[in-house]
Design brief:
The structure holds two protein chains of two kinds.
Chain A (H helix, E strand, L loop, with lengths): L1 E4 L6 E10 L5 E10 L3 E20 L2 E17 L4 E11 L5 E29 L4 E9 L10 H4 L3 E13 L6 E11 L1 E7 L3 E9 L6 E8 L6 E7 L6 E3 L12 E7 L2
Parallel strand pairs in A: 1-4, 8-16
Antiparallel strand pairs in A: 2-3, 3-7, 4-7, 5-7, 6-7, 8-12, 9-10, 9-13, 11-12, 13-15, 14-16
Chain B lengths: L38 E4 L8 E10 L5 E3 L3 E12 L13 E17 L9 E9 L4 E2 L5 E29 L29 E2 L3
Antiparallel strand pairs in B: 1-2, 2-8, 3-8, 4-8, 4-9, 5-8, 6-8, 7-8
Chain lengths: 264, 205
């Protein structure tokens, strides 16, 4: 019937999560507690039933065990027969986001009655695998050859980031103009530096990218060259805009190249 | 009473006076029941934590028995029988433990209609608005408690409402033995002796 998000204080209050490392095979025990706010009001002498989904925003690749408690937290009635019920609750993994969702069924009767809030507590053991976006940045040695092959020497000269991508379209006499808006979410780390006869290459990694939303990988450099513009862009055939999911949580080969555009 | 006491709830009676009727709600047996045991579990981390505990407490919603058709707001401290050692009270508690707590309505009870001038209808609001993130550890006893924001409103009948709070707490206990080193069953958490006047639920001081 409706969706509630722990990131929105109008939807959920007092959301508190603790995560304990169980010390075996990447398993964690997660306890998520809070008070959800369906703010459901009816004016009827018949029992109404509805379902709500609470997006808990807890990443989990696999839920091994889960148990959930829900209970009434805020109810009201005026002068009539009434009924309030938290009928059922279940924890599922949202296939689009790879995060935990709490699905709750409620029932309500009264003229009027309100079921403003219900409390929840999810206890689950989960297993997480590492998801990542990886790729390389390649540049000509003639532009810059670092003294060492240490990532710490190379990293200050390159920025790789994962951006949330949104587009909007506006009409024009020449057809619709599409505007791209990028919001930085995560930064990448340089992990390995390699070289060939003419080129240097730095491998980067962005850990735990978000799922269920369109993202774009962008790169930048502060390297300069006399008489030339230093440009950085995606390598040929590389797709730098994509949406990850629980079943497809990682992406590799998002490569960038640096080229020199000589001026004059 | 034998065994560990729990659910020591004092009820503020502010029902409308002068009508000569007994406004006491029906007995609420569970309020006087024995404490549920505290469960303590050794964990591997995250550092510095090595212990996860589950504990429960109860409390009054709003201001106890009310019948004046006003919304009565109150924040109650729901104490548990979990004792946490080694707390430095000069440092924020949130740096020394992590908790995840919630509360729900367990009891709503109404007494007799207050007077012949009233009709048989009434309205009510029973609410747990929030569980406060900053928890509480008593300096003298080490007992762990959580503050809960509540509201209740009733009219025409004197009514009282109660909540139960469940908390999971992650903290460091020097006596916790890691699971892979425990040769004997885990010792049960000891009961807590309650003295006269040591109420389990109180207004935060």
């Amino acid at each position: 019937m409706a969706e509630l998000d722990v990131l929105n204080p109008a939807h959920v209050s007092s959301h508190q999560v603790l995560e304990a490392d169980l010390g075996v095979g990447g398993r964690s025990l997660i306890v998520a507690s809070g008070i959800a706010r369906p703010e459901w009001k009816i004016d009827s002498d018949e029992v109404h039933r509805g379902t709500w989904t609470v997006h808990l925003r807890i990443p989990a690749d696999t839920v091994e065990q889960a148990t959930t408690h829900i209970g009434l937290a805020s109810i009201g009635n005026d002068d009539t027969e009434y009924g309030f019920s938290t009928d059922s609750a279940a924890v599922v993994i949202n296939p689009a986001t790879g995060e935990l969702d709490l699905e709750v069924a409620l029932a309500l009767m009264g003229e009027p009655s309100t079921l403003n809030r219900f409390s929840y507590q999810v206890v689950a053991t989960v297993v997480r695998s590492t998801s990542e976006v990886t790729g390389t940045i390649t540049w000509p040695k003639s532009l810059w050859t670092p003294e060492t092959r240490l990532p710490s020497e190379v990293a200050p000269h390159f920025t790789v980031q994962l951006d949330a991508r949104a587009t909007s379209s506006s009409p024009s006499p020449f057809g619709p103009i599409v505007t791209e808006t990028l919001t930085p979410l995560l930064a990448g780390d340089i992990t390995v530096v390699t070289e060939t006869e003419y080129e240097m290459s730095a491998r980067y990694r962005i850990l735990n990218p978000p799922k269920g939303r369109e993202v774009k990988i962008t790169a930048a450099t502060d390297l300069t060259a006399p008489g030339a513009n230093v440009l950085i862009g995606r390598a040929e055939g590389v797709v730098d805009v994509f949406t990850l999911s629980g079943g497809d949580p990682s992406r590799s080969g998002v490569d960038f190249i640096v080229v020199l555009e000589h001026v004059g | 009473m034998t065994g560990p006491k729990t659910w020591e709830v004092f009820v503020v009676d502010i029902a409308l006076p002068g009508d000569g009727l007994d406004h006491t709600p029906p007995p609420i047996a569970s309020v006087d029941g024995l404490a549920q045991p505290v469960v303590k579990i050794p964990i591997a981390g995250p550092a510095p934590y090595n212990t996860l505990a589950v504990a429960r407490g109860r409390g009054v919603i709003g201001r106890g028995k009310v019948s004046d058709d006003f919304a009565h707001r109150a924040t109650w401290r729901s104490m548990t029988h979990l004792k946490i050692p080694g707390i430095d009270h000069d440092r924020p508690l949130s740096e020394q433990l992590v908790h995840s707590s919630t509360a729900c309505i367990i009891t709503m009870s109404s007494g007799a209609q207050l007077g012949p001038e009233h009709d048989s209808g009434s309205n009510f609001l029973i609410a747990i608005d929030a569980v406060i993130a900053e928890a509480y550890v008593d300096e003298a006893t080490g007992r762990f408690g959580v503050d809960v924001e509540t509201v209740n409103r009733h009219n025409q009948t004197s009514s009282g409402d109660f909540f139960e709070m469940t908390t999971w707490v992650m903290y460091y206990d020097p006596d916790t033995v890691p699971l892979d080193q425990a040769a004997d069953p885990i010792e049960p958490h000891p009961g807590v002796t309650i003295h006269e006047g040591d109420v389990g639920t109180s207004f935060p001081g």
